[in-house]
Amino acid sequence: MEGLGVLEEMGELTRRGEAFALATVVWRQGPSSSQPGSRAIITAAGELHGWIGGACAEPVVIREAQQVMADGTARLLLLGTPEQFGGGVPDGMTVVPISCQSEGALEVYIEPVLPAPHLVIVGDSPMTRTLASLARALGWRTDLVRGPDFTAEAADGRSMVVVATQGHGDEEALEAATAARPAYLGLVGSRRRGATVLGYLADRGVPQDQLDRVRVPAGLDLGPTTHQEIAVAILAELVQLRASGALAPARSGVPAAEPAKDPVCGMAVAAGSSRPVRYEGTDYYFCCTGCRQAFEQDPDAYVKRETRC
Length: 309
Known about the structure:
Layout: H1 4-15, E1 20-29, E2 39-43, E3 48-50, H2 57-71, E4 75-79, H3 82-85, E5 93-96, E6 105-113, E7 118-122, H4 126-137, E8 141-145, E9 159-163, H5 170-180, E10 184-187, H6 191-203, H7 208-211, E11 214-215, H8 227-243, E12 260-261, E13 268-269, E14 277-279, E15 282-284, H9 289-297, H10 299-308
Parallel strand pairs: 4-5, 7-8, 7-9, 9-10, 10-11
Antiparallel strand pairs: 1-2, 1-6, 2-3, 4-6, 12-13, 14-15
Helix pairs in contact: 4-8, 5-6, 9-10
């Protein structure tokens, strides 16, 4: 995948609401298999789509990209041996030593592309319409769903769900919402009404750990107020929780495997990215053929070095 294919994949991931990182080569020192402008997408599961360089660069870029997504902050990497850069590395850049036989070097900019917050509002009233309008003004992906039309498939683990059916099927809507296990689940209503609804669902066998996550009343507690102010109070609570990191989006897909370490050069290598060499019951992975050949000629020398480290 390259060129327009990378851009098309970015669009598809964005439509699906999945987090990813975009890595772009901004400088290279030959010999290197990549070129300035080469791009790759790294998913939250650690999959790389595109081209950013060979076996030495890819594991490092994947590892750093996952950290960028976790932090939500872009970073600029210089990949090579420290001697190649000397003391001329600007502040704020991250130097990652890599040991490739090609002796090339790369400068890679990695930026996070995080999905817009997804808010599902269940109910049809002036308050729900006001809340939807306010959330959309923030750029949030917002779905306004009538109570009878709401199902668990309308949300996922990264969604925020506000049930505001005002006594018209509260129990059914909240039960469906708990099944989606959203990042946030709130019920608009009094504490007394909330206790009744939660008690009913407990009797129906909804797990207590799911019911404990329901916020009643949803939003900052302002006491008796207008429907406009209720909408503002709910949105304020959501913004507050997101800013504190309490609603960090769940990663999708299969978690990436821990990288292996090349016993010869010390490079981080994606386990399973190449055929391993099994020695004394352990699989060893390598960044390149040269490291593999060196290990095969004298495995004890490298295994003992790893043990000492």
